[in-house]
Design a protein that fits this description.
Helices cover about 70% and strands about 0% of the residues. It has a two-stranded antiparallel ribbon with strand order 1-2. A hairpin with a 6-residue loop joins strand 1 and strand 2.
């Protein structure tokens, strides 16, 4: 134990000497995360020759810092202009954007930055301390367990539908139907592709994301002079609003802790990802809140939950990579390639033979999140001014950047037209009071749910009872039922107490 502690201290101070790599990469990650379609993964791929030319330690610090900061950067446009930079930030606009429209963009950004930094830093420390235990999570999470995890996220549709049950469920089922487009999992038979080869792999996520949120929002805001709603006032770039946002986040420290841990656990599961973590965290946050009716109106806890969770995922994805050699996501897979190029061997022996590499990645993540608090927080007072730009200029810029973002992942012109199509769908949905977030949840989680469901049935020769054949799965089923029933029960009790008074 003493030897490990000595190594950690040595690695910590050694990592601090690479501030000249970390700080510029933080700002690069903010830009990358803020542009829809771009991510840490495709940026590292673009810069792969540079990464391979670096020393192993420098390259790993660069990749880890870019990964963390891009995750945080994705929340900036989600809050200010209702454009999630990545799928992991898809739940952020639910409460972040209403705050911006109320003239509280600066506070919202401060809440986001504090939640992301503390959530990422905390889960990195927890991952470092409990790595052997967390590494086993992936072994226990099979198709049955993953089905229940997906249902945790999809049940958010029911939460969104609480204001208008019929419209909420229609929007959710529409998303599930759109998500089923493509070739089916078992026989690879095309479904609803209308002859378009570009849809055989399913509906691409980024065009759907930017269309439903960004393009439709551009159509909406162009009808107004500025984003800020009538009666909302933007602070004049002073520090008071930033400190107010910091105070709002720190006063909810327990909320940051438990939602970030949700992200950490889901991040350990290969293939799960930040989008699932943010939806599950938001759903759980709303379900067990004493004021669930405030969610979706600019509630701080509705912003803290997804931002803490999707940054908690970052440390989680490193655990199966380093301990098992199994990448937890796309970015981790690219890190695997770079590390293999430098001759790194994975598994428990990594922490014995090359402890500075194994511990160094977590330490680089911890240092990056720590430095982000001091490098990014001051920017919130300037970033929030985006909401005051006249929409006659802002809307065309949003549409242009997001269409380019829709093109980048696959480089198909078809995806740009698809983004416009989803933009029209999103505009109609907003104008008729259907929630676009419910549609997006169905598009993201529907195909995943179908894949794991069919896999479970295939393993059990079509026996539906296999969904209840796992002890861990049954525990998760009970948790899912409780998370849906208890909020209704607590709400009933509050009403009964109100009547009694």
């Amino acid at each position: 134990m003493g030897e490990t502690l000595a190594i950690l201290i040595e690695v910590f101070f050694e990592t601090l000497t690479f501030w000249w790599v970390i700080i510029p990469t933080i700002f690069l990650g903010l830009i990358v995360g803020g542009i829809p379609g771009f991510s840490a993964a495709n940026t590292i791929i673009i810069l792969m020759p540079l990464t391979l030319a670096m020393t192993l330690q420098t390259g790993l610090i660069f990749m880890v810092t870019l990964y963390c900061s891009s995750r945080m950067g994705a929340g900036i446009p989600a809050i200010l202009v209702n454009i999630p930079g990545t799928a992991g930030a898809a739940a952020t606009p639910l409460d972040g954007y209403p705050m911006a429209k109320q003239g509280k963009g600066q506070q919202a950004l401060a809440i986001s930055f504090v939640s992301s930094s503390i959530g990422g830093l905390l889960t990195t420390i927890i991952a470092l301390a409990t790595m052997p235990i967390l590494a086993r999570v992936g072994f226990y999470m099979h198709s049955v367990e993953m089905i229940v995890v997906m249902l945790f996220g999809i049940s958010l549709i029911a939460s969104i539908a609480s204001k208008d049950m019929l419209k909420g469920l229609i929007a959710g089922f529409l998303g599930l139907m759109i998500g089923s487009i493509g070739t089916d999992v078992v026989y690879a038979t095309p479904r609803a592709t209308f002859g378009f080869l570009e849809l055989y792999d399913g509906v691409p996520l980024i065009p759907a994301l930017v269309g439903l949120f960004a393009v439709s929002e551009a159509f909406i805001i162009i009808e107004k002079k500025v984003i800020v709603a009538r009666g909302g006032e933007v602070a004049s770039g002073n520090w008071d609003s930033t400190f107010e946002g910091i105070r709002m986040a720190l006063s909810r420290w327990w909320h940051i802790i438990w939602t970030s841990i949700i992200g950490l656990v889901i991040g350990v599961i290969p293939g799960a990802g930040a989008s699932i973590a943010s939806f599950v965290a938001y759903q759980q946050s709303r379900s067990f809140s004493k004021t669930p009716e405030l969610y979706g109106t600019g509630h701080p806890e509705g912003l803290i939950a997804p931002e803490s969770a999707n940054n908690g995922v970052t440390s989680g994805t490193l655990v199966p990579l380093l301990v098992l050699g199994i990448p937890g996501g796309a970015t981790a897979a690219i890190m695997l390639v770079v590390m293999q190029f430098h001759g790194v061997s994975f598994g428990p022996s990594l922490f014995e033979n090359q402890p500075k590499v194994g511990y160094g990645m977590f330490m680089a993540m911890a240092v990056a999140y720590f430095l982000m608090l001091f490098t990014i927080l001051p920017l919130s007072r300037y970033m929030s001014r985006v909401t005051t730009i006249p929409t006659i200029y802002l809307a065309p810029m949003i549409i242009s950047f997001t269409l380019v973002g829709g093109f980048v992942p696959r480089e198909y012109m078809f995806d740009m037209y698809l983004a416009l199509g989803f933009g029209v769908l999103g505009y109609i949905a907003r104008r008729t009071n259907y929630h676009v977030a419910a549609i997006l949840i169905g598009i993201i989680l529907g195909p995943l749910l179908e894949r794991y469901f069919l896999l479970a049935l295939k393993k059990s020769d079509g026996d539906i009872l296999t969904l209840f054949s796992s002890n861990l799965g049954n525990v998760l089923w009970v948790g899912l039922v409780l998370s849906l029933i208890l909020p209704i029960f607590f709400n009933w009790r509050r009403k009964q107490k109100g009547v009694a008074k």
